[in-house]
Design brief:
By secondary structure, the chain is an alpha+beta fold. The chain has one domain: Nucleotidyltransferase, domain 5 (2-Layer Sandwich). The protein contains three helices and four strands, in the order αβββαβα. Strands 3-2-1-4 form a four-stranded mixed β-sheet, covered by helices on one side. The longest helix is centred in the middle third of the chain and has 18 residues. The radius of gyration is 14 Å and the shape is globular.
């Protein structure tokens, strides 16, 4: 399978799952994106089209994080959960963005659950 086929396949899966996943003010969407070296997570209110909270390995706070990519992903999951709980958000809808629920995506989700988010 070529790179173009893989990207198109992920976009099809993403479109299919996004038809069912929708974030609101009370229960925002936890959207996760990963590149080869970075990972990003956002809490999104789809009703208003606003990003409520975001964390990534690119931010200045997380520039010094060390460990494997999965360990860093788990720390980011914990960070976004702590920020969400500080804003009064405890329930979210998880959007894996077309990626398999495996590896760094699963580590981020487990980190967020471990810190108190419910999904």
């Amino acid at each position: 399978m070529s790179q173009i086929d893989k990207a198109a396949h992920r976009q099809k899966i993403k479109a299919r799952s996004r038809a069912a996943v929708h974030g609101t003010q009370e229960r925002p969407r936890l959207c996760v994106y990963r590149s080869l070296s970075q990972i990003y997570a956002q809490l999104i209110d789809d009703d208003n089209g606003k990003t409520i909270i975001s964390v990534s390995t690119m931010s200045k706070d997380n520039a010094a994080l060390s460990g494997t990519k999965s360990e860093v992903s788990a720390l980011l999951g914990k960070q976004i959960a702590e920020k969400a709980i500080a804003k009064g958000i405890s329930k979210v809808v998880f959007d894996r963005n077309g990626f398999r629920y495996h590896g760094r995506i699963k580590a981020l989700a487990d980190g967020a659950r471990g810190a108190g988010l419910i999904f």
